[in-house]
Amino acid sequence: MAYIERRRQGRWRARHRGPDGREKSRTFGRRVDAERWLAGVEVAKSRGSYVDPKAGKVTTGEWAARWLEAQRHLKPSTRARYDGIVAKHIVPRWGTTPVARIAHADVAAWVASLDGAPASVRYVHRVLHLLLDLAVRDGRIAANPATGVRLPRAARPAKRALDHHELNRLADAAGDSRTLVLVLGYVGLRWSEAAALRVGQVDLLRRRLTIAVCDQRR
Questions:
Q1: What is the C-alpha to C-alpha distance for residues 17 and 21, in angstroms, rounded to an integer?
Q2: Which of 79, 96, 135, 169 would be a feasible disulfide site paired with 74, CB 3.0-4.6 Å?
Q3: Helices marked H in the chain — which ranges?
């Protein structure tokens, strides 16, 4: 049960019990501030978003170490990459910052300051996002401040069509599907169009295919 009591020197202490059953308290100079704080706490409890302020005081460096310890299910190469990102990028910037003090705007500024290819920057952000996700699930922060940060777009490799020699080599390697590969390559059919072909639409003597558009509304 939540209540407010008057303390010495005209101060007010607000008390309540957290979801874990333990009593929490905070002292204010004015009664109205204590009442507002308690009201906010009760609303957060009803919405399931209440977070114990003490739980969020763990530093990001300490939390990152705990998170890494829980990643034993990953491939050694992936875990080693996570280790490197935490040591090189996350701890130097966020190591001494409590997880509850990390702000969305600060994460956005940090991401914008990272050097490297877009794909590398996105991976570094992913690691921070993952370890903060664990903090959310553990009840240390109410929301992940790394969510929604704008990331650099990864460059897409330019598309290149196969030449005649390459297409024929691919078709030869396809075995019984050689003809299908040649049809897809030279005619330009989508896979769904080729898969929808029926016997009556294939005229081998005239070397002709009939591509019919079906009305799905019927």
A1: 6
A2: 79
A3: 31-47, 60-69, 76-85, 91-94, 104-113, 118-137, 164-173, 178-187, 191-195
Residue 99: count of CB within 10 angstroms of its CB: 24
User: Amino acid identity of 69?
Assistant: E
Count of CA atoms in the C-beta half-sphere (13 A) of 172:
6
Instruction: State the DSSP string of 131-184.
Output: HHHHHHHTTS-SS-TTTT---PPPPPPPP----HHHHHHHHHHTGGGHHHHHHH
Q: Tell me the one-letter amino acid at 36.
A: R
Interval 34-84: pLDDT, tens: 778 677 767 666 666 566 667 788 999 999 999 999 988 889 999 999 999
| 15 backbone dihedrals φ, ψ, rounded to 5° | -125, 145
b/e 43-60 (16+ beta carbons within 10 angstroms → b): eeeeeeebbeeebbebbb
Question: If we measure between CA atoms, which residue out of 58, 1, 59 comes closest to residue 25?
Answer: 1
pLDDT digits (tens, 9 = 90+) for 10-27: 788 877 776 566 777 778
Amino acid type, 144: N
Query: How large is the average pLDDT for residues 173-181?
Result: 90
Which two three-digit tokens encode residue 99?
């997880």
Please state the length of the chain.
218
